[in-house]
Amino acid sequence: MEKYFKLKENKTDVKTEILAGITTFMTMVYILAVNPGMLSETGMDFGGVFTATALSAGVATLIMALYAKYPFALAPGMGLNAFFTYSVCIGMKQSWQFALTAVLVEGIIFILLSLLKVREAIFDLIPLSLKKAVSAGIGLFIALVGLKNAGIIVANEGTTIGLGDLTANASIVALLGLIVIAILYARNVKGALLIGIIIATIIGIPLGVTTLPEGFKIFSLPPSLKDVAFKFVPFSEIMTKDFWIIVVTFLFVDIFDTVGTLAGVASKSGMLDKEGKLPRVSRALTADAVGTIFGACMGTSTVTTFVESSAGVAAGGRTGLTSVTTGIMFILALFIAPLFAIIPAAATAPVLVVVGVFMMSAVMEINWHDLTEAVPAFLTIAMMPFAYSIAEGIVFGIVSYTLIKTFTGKAKDVSALMWVLSVLFVLREIFL
């Protein structure tokens, strides 16, 4: 492992990497319940989607681990599964088989873009200040997700969002978990995030937040894939305008969610080189594309790099051994799903908040005195939580950076690709 993952060179060890991998898994295990629940609204079999979700997450994460050697985990993405369910199937009244075929085609296109290094070029040519802003923006975004999951932040008609009921049991569990994790981190306790999740889960038992179902069993065989795997529509059905609009939308969101996540997590962990580039980024992007194709074949929505990977990085994960651990945990989850299913969102919420704190430190590396750098960076940071989308934050950052730099006499700072992306983003808002 030392030779393959270069643990000493990356200033880490086996224990740290394994704990980090478990921590990442614990912060994203909710996808094993959320994704099947959401996709089943389209008529898909819940059990089959559960197995497809766990399998695709495990396989894609192991590819990331062994091929790209990064501590990034993958799974069917939130937002992308919502588009699959509520926009394509319910809104456009398309079959889930139609949507699944669009995901497969998107993955194939991603492979081609990866081989042509188009996605790598996009990653490399995003200015360093925006990459730092992406890191901070993701921090705010996942903190908001955590606070929302715990009921601490809620929807509010008068002010859009507002403070929830802090006396509710879920809020109490999350707040106590947050305090525990902060104390453990301040005292330099290894595995603080994982310990915090376990303690919060235990606290939730007497409060009714953590529930053990009747007849609870730790071990069970995974549900069959027969009702969801390889269920694609005939070729004749994909030659339509609606199909390709769906594919393009999947492509857009996935490209910039992935690029944003990689940039943000890599920036926070010091993996970017002096030019702001991520070594082996093409391998990371290829792992993402292969994961999407495999996931579509198994029967789930688009697989993407998860922002919760930052939890494992914050716990000390620096190499592919972290994601090997996470990938194995997803495979094992196929057989011990009931055990992980009892972990409430309130127990993982404080982890997301603490990781958000860590990722905000990137703002110190942005030149706030130069408004041509500061305004795009701020828009990138602000729009991620406000628009509830990593991709939209990147859109606002890139378009504003291009226009402000150009019209203040600093056009040389803007690459041709930045202009191309800006034009495409504007056209997308007009026509899609």
Automatic annotation (TrEMBL):
Record-linked Pfam families: Xan_ur_permease
GO molecular function, a single term: purine nucleobase transmembrane transporter activity
InterPro entries per the UniProt record, alphabetical: Azg-like (IPR045018), Azg-like_bact_archaea (IPR026033), NCS2 (IPR006043)
Keyword NAD: no
Subcellular location: Cell membrane
Keywords: Cell membrane, Membrane, Transmembrane, Transmembrane helix, Transport
Transmembrane residue ranges: 18-34, 46-68, 96-116, 136-154, 166-185, 192-212, 243-265, 285-307, 319-342, 349-368, 374-402, 414-431
Keyword Cell membrane appears in the UniProt entry: yes
Membrane topology: Multi-pass membrane protein
Highest taxon, organism lineage: Bacteria
GO-annotated cellular components: plasma membrane
Family membership: Belongs to the nucleobase:cation symporter-2 (NCS2) (TC 2.A.40) family. Azg-like subfamily.
Protein name: AGZA family xanthine/uracil permease-like MFS transporter
